[in-house]
Write a structure and sequence with these properties.
Blueprint (H helix, E strand, L loop, with lengths): L4 E4 L2 E4 L3 E2 L5 E2 L17 E4 L2 E4 L18 H14 L8 H4 L3 E5 L15 E7 L5 E8 L5 E5 L1
Parallel strand pairs: 7-10
Antiparallel strand pairs: 1-2, 3-4, 5-6, 8-9, 9-10
Organism: Bucco capensis
Keywords: Disulfide bond, EGF-like domain, Glycoprotein, Membrane, Repeat, Signal, Transmembrane, Transmembrane helix
Protein name: ITB1 protein
Amino acid sequence: CPGNGICKCRVCECFPNFTGSACDCSLDTAPCMASNGQICNGRGTCECGTCNCTDPKFQGPTCEMCQTCLGVCAEHKDCVQCRAFEKGEKKETCTQECMHFNMTRVDSRDKLPQPGQPDPLSHCKEKDVDDCWFYFTYSVNSNGEANVHVV
């Protein structure tokens, strides 16, 4: 019972936080905690202290690595552009495809949310269809709601 329990009559009796026939399965979820505070980045299950990624695009010890994913900024650029400026590739389909986040307009870049807030935050600088830069932040709160602030 590798130090995680007591052997009685050839059966392991596990200490708290351990399970399995040999007490070799830790119930501690701390090793599965992703940087966003979610177990296995919300893309897997924590089994014996190790993430089992259920979304095949994601891998790594906390299911945070995705080789084929666009960055948060590139992924949401078209929707932010059509919601904020009524232009871009999704202009015609904006109300169908781009209502998945709350949007707040701000007057200047210094009014954008800054690092240090409780929710993970991405600062984005993207080019619009007119080849101009626009700035926005993207964050997801503890209720799973996405919030965008755009200049």
